[in-house]
Design a protein that fits this description.
The chain is an alpha+beta fold. The protein folds into 2 domains: about 30 residues; about 110 residues, Immunoglobulin-like (Sandwich), CATH 2.60.40.2550. Helix content is about 20%, strand content about 35%. It is built from 1 helix and 12 strands. Strands 1, 2, 4, 7, 8, 10, 11 and 12 form an 8-stranded mixed β-sheet that branches. A two-stranded antiparallel ribbon has the order 3-6. The chain has a two-stranded antiparallel ribbon with strand order 5-9. A hairpin with a 4-residue loop joins strand 7 and strand 8. The longest helix has about 30 residues. It is elongated, with a radius of gyration of 29 Å.
Length: about 180
């Protein structure tokens, strides 16, 4: 008989604790909702720091080619050597949007591309078409149109701080 009354006692204590928690939560929420509304100040501008990265904007050249402007965009690739299957990029900068780093050979053939974010550094890029001979290569940044897939006709070339194409030429020496 003692076991039953201990169980009943624990059950009542548990139920009382739940009821008390429910009442406290109800009173707390009612107290929050009865507070008077505060007026908010209107600001002409909000500064995000000394030099926030601007969001890319679009522009057209006289021939009608569309570009994306990103004054903070930059790519720096040193001459490299390797087995022809990968590249190492030490410095890539893009503003607040994702972009594609695209690697071309001198004929304009895309041999590699990868999605980079404002936080991507450094980047090792596997070449989709391995190099079999030493050659000059080119790198360019394209603003992603939001689908995460590089499409030359939809993703816009990026113009950097001085309104010039974000582009880098470099030499790749294949070593065997």
């Amino acid at each position: 008989m003692t076991v039953l009354s201990n169980r009943n006692m624990k059950s009542r204590t548990y139920k009382s604790a739940i009821l008390l928690a429910f009442l406290l939560a109800t009173l707390t929420l009612n107290g929050c909702s009865s507070a008077p509304a505060k007026d908010f100040e209107n600001f002409d501008a909000i500064s995000l720091g000394d030099n926030p990265a601007p969001a890319p904007t679009k522009t057209f050249d006289p021939a009608g080619q569309e570009y994306a402007n990103d004054p903070s965009a930059e790519v720096d690739i040193e001459d490299q050597e390797g087995d022809g299957t990968s590249l190492d990029i030490d410095e890539i900068k893009v503003g607040r949007a994702n972009a594609f780093l695209v690697i071309y050979d001198t004929s304009g053939l895309v041999i590699a591309e990868t999605l980079v974010t404002p936080q991507s550094q450094p980047v090792t890029l596997l070449l989709e078409i391995p190099l079999t001979r030493s050659q000059d290569l080119q790198a360019a940044l394209y603003l992603d149109d939001g689908d995460g897939v590089f499409e030359l006709d939809l993703d816009l070339p990026l113009l950097g701080e001085e309104g010039k194409l974000v582009h880098e030429d470099f030499f790749y020496k294949v070593t065997n």
